[in-house]
């Protein structure tokens, strides 16, 4: 078995990065669509409430569907799950493109596409995240997270100005068509590589007798038995109540506060992306503090401080705001990378789908409430108020986390023991699952 694991560790890169590259192109297409649709809503309605509603609709599946998605992903074939999720997103995008082409599109139809993309994306993201640790050797997980964060930043640099340029050259249905093409690039490699299944999934295929609800409860009990993870979920919930709505209303800040155009929004998006690239490279080179969670707390302090700076910036300080959002981007990999590396290192493979989705659901559970309040308040008092309040809250959480034992010791006090083979991919030891093991991964964001 040791020889088999060594051989698998030597062969992981080709299938992993083949699928990962396809997913990267798909993510670029998705970001182009997101930019185009948000800008269309902004120019068509000019309402912060409409943008808040759009963000709310995109987040609802993460709160109510993703916990179930995690339990199902841990049972289903992860390769098939990703194929079907990408295909559903592509079909929904085609339908909306036809509506734009016919001139019959309405705001509620844009909302519907955002809901479908978010729901299917929840299954897709969960399957990819849970598969990564089954393919990538343990010692490379932090590097892969750094690469994912860097790629996210690079795509943000490209997608915002590219989206603005494409909207000048093409009708919006043309931008949607590009996303369909990139989805095909993501789906195709999945037909040629197997995605490894954890022990639990293999047992279910052989005739397991537990229900989805029982699996969900087992995942919840597993996460609840990890005090540090519970505290991280609580912190993320409180932060997202205030900070996420602020950045969701960034287009309104550009139009109403800075009197800007699409290229101003593109500058902010690109500044965020450049920051993420720099932060990802910094994390890859530095590796963070020995106690990885302290790196995440430092990242939260920087995110909170930069959000506060954006909220306090006068209308004449657009360049300063670009610099502040660059700091936000730089701190994002420092916050997200270490947390996901910890989870992928210590959470049992058969539990990862459930644990990841539970964490995301906890992180976004209060965001819908924040968005419901943020839209009308921002229309009345200005978007800057949400950046100020969210920045103060985030910085406070980052500082407090350094003094909470359950958070500081999250890597030592966890729900599962350390792995026996730290340099080998976390493959199920079921013979059928170890024959051809590959994994898919896509750059991700907290968001």
Summarize the structure.
By secondary structure, the chain is mainly alpha-helical. The protein has helices spanning about 1-10, 15-45, 50-65, 65-75, 80-100, 105-135, 140-170, 170-185, 200-205, 210-225, 225-250, 250-255, 260-285, 290-310, 320-345, 350-365, 365-380, 385-400, 405-410.
Report on this structure:
There is one protein chain. The chain has one domain: MFS general substrate transporter like domains (Growth Hormone, Chain: A), CATH 1.20.1250.20. It is built from 19 helices and no strands. It is an all-alpha fold and 447 residues long.
Number of domains: 1
CATH class: Mainly Alpha
Q: What's the tally of helices? A: 19
Number of extended strands:
0
Q: Could you tell me how far the N terminus lies from the C terminus, measured between alpha carbons in angstroms?
A: 38 Å
Determine the fraction of residues in helical runs and give it as a percent range.
over 70%
| Annotated CATH architecture | Up-down Bundle
Order of helices and strands: HHHHHHHHHHHHHHHHHHH
Q: What would the average pLDDT be, to the nearest integer?
A: 77
Low-confidence stretches: 1-9, 201-207, 416-447
Shape: globular
Instruction: Could you tell me the CATH topology label.
Output: Growth Hormone, Chain: A
Radius of gyration equals 21 Å
Strand content: under 5%
Instruction: Report the CATH superfamily.
Output: MFS general substrate transporter like domains
Q: What does the largest sheet look like?
A: none
SS class: mainly alpha
Present the secondary structure layout.
Blueprint: H1 2-11, H2 13-45, H3 48-64, H4 66-73, H5 78-102, H6 107-135, H7 141-169, H8 172-187, H9 199-205, H10 212-224, H11 227-248, H12 250-257, H13 262-286, H14 292-312, H15 318-346, H16 352-364, H17 367-381, H18 384-401, H19 405-408
Helix pairs in contact: 2-3, 2-7, 2-8, 3-6, 3-16, 3-17, 4-6, 4-10, 4-16, 5-6, 5-8, 6-16, 7-13, 7-15, 11-16, 11-17, 11-18, 13-15, 14-15, 14-18
């Amino acid at each position: 078995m040791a020889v088999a694991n060594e051989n698998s560790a030597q062969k992981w890169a080709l299938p992993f990065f083949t699928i990962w590259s396809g997913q990267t192109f798909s993510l670029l297409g998705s970001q182009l669509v997101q930019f185009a649709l948000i800008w269309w809503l902004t120019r068509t309605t000019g309402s912060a409430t409409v943008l808040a509603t759009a963000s709310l609709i995109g987040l609802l599946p993460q709160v109510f569907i993703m916990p179930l998605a995690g339990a199902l992903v841990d049972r289903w074939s992860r390769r098939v799950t990703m194929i079907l999720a990408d295909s559903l997103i592509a079909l929904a995008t085609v339908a909306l493109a036809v509506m734009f082409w016919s001139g019959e599109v309405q705001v509620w139809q844009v909302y519907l596409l955002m809901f479908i993309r978010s729901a299917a994306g929840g299954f897709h993201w969960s399957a990819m995240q849970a598969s990564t640790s089954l393919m990538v050797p343990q010692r490379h997980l932090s590097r892969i997270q750094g690469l994912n964060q860097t790629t996210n930043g690079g795509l943000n640099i490209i997608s915002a100005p590219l989206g603005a340029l494409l909207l000048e050259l093409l009708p919006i249905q043309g931008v949607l068509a590009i996303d369909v093409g990139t989805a095909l690039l993501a789906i195709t490699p999945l037909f040629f590589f197997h995605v490894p299944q954890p022990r639990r999934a293999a047992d279910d295929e052989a005739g397991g007798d537990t229900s989805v609800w029982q699996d969900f409860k087992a995942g919840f009990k597993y996460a609840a038995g990890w005090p540090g993870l519970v505290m991280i979920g609580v912190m993320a919930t409180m932060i997202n109540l205030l900070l996420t709505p602020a950045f969701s209303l960034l287009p309104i800040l550009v139009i109403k506060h800075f009197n800007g155009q699409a290229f101003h929004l593109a500058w902010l998006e690109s500044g965020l992306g450049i920051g993420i690239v720099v932060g990802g490279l910094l994390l890859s080179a530095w590796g963070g503090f020995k106690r990885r969670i302290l790196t995440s707390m430092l990242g939260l302090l920087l995110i909170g401080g930069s959000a506060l700076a954006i909220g306090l910036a006068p209308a004449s300080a657009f360049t300063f705001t670009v610099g502040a959002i660059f700091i936000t981007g730089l701190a994002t990999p420092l916050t997200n990378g270490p947390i996901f590396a910890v989870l992928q290192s210590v959470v049992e493979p058969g539990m990862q789908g459930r644990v990841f989705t539970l964490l995301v659901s906890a992180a976004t559970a209060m965001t819908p409430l924040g968005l419901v309040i943020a839209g009308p308040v921002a229309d009345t008092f200005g978007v800057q108020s949400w950046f100020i309040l969210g920045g103060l809250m985030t910085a406070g959480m980052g500082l407090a986390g350094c003094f909470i034992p359950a958070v500081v010791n999250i890597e030592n006090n966890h729900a599962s023991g350390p792995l026996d083979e730290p340099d080998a991919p976390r493959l199920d030891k079921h013979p059928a699952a170890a024959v051809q093991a590959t994994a898919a991964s896509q750059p991700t964001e907290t968001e």
